[in-house]
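Exercise (ungraded).
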Amino acid sequence: EPEVTQTPSHQVTQMGQEVILRCVPISNHLYFYWYRQILGQKVEFLVSFYNNEISEKSEIFDDQFSVERPDGSNFTLKIRSTKLEDSAMYFCASSAGSNYGYTFGSGTRLTVV
Amino acid sequence: AQSVTQPDIHITVSEGASLELRCNYSYGATPYLFWYVQSPGQGLQLLLKYFSGDTLVQGIKGFEAEFKRSQSSFNLRKPSVHWSDAAEYFCAVGPYNTDKLIFGTGTRLQVFP
């Protein structure tokens, strides 16, 4: 069964550093998403991406965050200057359209120290 | 605003017992409804989804859920729980005019032998 692949599975970074989280969505999917889950809390929507542009973003997705689909297969989330409160599990998801549901990756656990 | 409520934070059942996890949503129209399962350190796996039609939907791993419009509920059920079902279960709503998912806070299921 097709999978959404995320790398790395765990990343530790120092506060103020830039991090890039990588995702390879399912190949024929057109919609891409990032969600995050702070430890012990609910999964929260960050951003959706379609046709090479952001289609929707949450209040969490401020100027420190950016997304990119650099080469037609990868989908990345960049946090420009990490803060302690960015520590969370970040999930990438892709979809062929909302009628088809969403497939999530296994997540990247980001720890900011 | 749209919201999802999972009233039970933690449920403990014996192996072989039946299970029902509750989910209530607040939304003006009929939403898309999902149940996801998350094992420790793992990603979100889709158990089942409801878009329209038959209000009783079957999913993977022997789970089913019933959409009840009058109660704004989408409860997840399994007739006989296995120890491997121990995990966190998330209900999610996908409103029709956006492609983001709104998640509930999750229910942690513990299974005793």
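Further reading is listed at the end of the chapter. For now, observe: The mean pLDDT of chain A is 93. The first strand of chain A starts at residue 5 and ends at 7.
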